[in-house]
Structures are given as structure tokens and as C-alpha cells.
Write a structure and sequence with these properties.
126 residues, mainly alpha, 64% helix
């Protein structure tokens, strides 16, 4: 049974589905996890990865306590680890990219949301 009307924008908000391609993908799973993080937590993750933040981003980042960040990151990484079981081939590909100094950012480009790609690339390489 198929959908009579496919609303791609809505589907990709909730499922790790790649626009205009069939199937589910690890990059999009990490994107969903990154999207679920509160913005101050996203910014803290970027800061810890050495990404330069704007003054406004830095101010927003400081709103999250270290405890909030630690809990959010632990939860996100737990979700990521659990989902890697379903995406074993892609998880192995991502691990290889990270281990060989490949472009993690390119791996997450299919998400097609630059801010989420930026967070996902740093979360996925953690």
C-alpha cells in the first residue's frame, strides 16, 4: 500500500528517509538525532569540536549547563549506537571515513540542511 500524496518535507522530519530516493539512511538518522537536540546543546557540540561560533551563537550556547549538555549528548550517542545496529554497513562506512581522515561533512550532505549537517558531522564523528 502506498501513499496517495507524498509530503516529502513532512516525511523527512520524522523518518531517516532520503529525498527522491527509496530507503532509509544512517546520515539521515544522525540528522534526526541532531535536529532533536536543543539549539544550545547543538552549539556546545560544535564549540567542543572546534567550530568558531558567532557572538549570537556563543551567547545562546552559554544558556545550556554542562549537566544539560552531558545528559543530551549521552542520550543522543545512545540512540546513535542503537541505530547503528540497523545500519551496520553505513555505520562501518562512517567509521572508516572517520578513521582515515575522510570528509565526514560530505557524508552528511544528503540531509540538505546546512545547520543540521554541521551538527550531525560533529556528532557522527564523536
Amino acid at each position: 500500500m502506498g501513499l496517495a500524496h507524498t509530503d516529502m518535507a513532512s516525511i523527512i522530519k520524522y523518518l531517516p528517509y532520503r529525498r527522491n530516493e527509496g530507503g532509509l539512511y544512517l546520515a539521515e538518522v544522525v540528522g534526526l538525532i541532531a535536529r532533536d537536540l536543543e539549539e544550545p546543546v547543538q552549539l556546545e557540540l560544535l564549540c567542543q569540536a572546534g567550530v568558531a561560533l558567532t557572538d549570537d551563537e556563543e551567547e545562546l550556547r552559554k544558556r545550556a549547563s554542562q549537566e544539560t549538555f552531558d545528559v543530551a549528548l549521552k542520550t543522543a550517542l545512545g540512540r546513535f549506537d542503537a541505530l547503528c545496529i540497523w545500519f551496520t554497513e553505513e555505520a562501518a562506512d562512517l567509521e572508516l571515513i572517520c578513521a582515515t581522515g575522510g570528509s565526514v561533512e560530505r557524508y552528511f550532505m544528503p540531509i540538505n540542511e546546512p545547520e543540521i549537517e554541521r551538527v550531525a558531522s560533529h556528532a557522527g564523528s564523536s
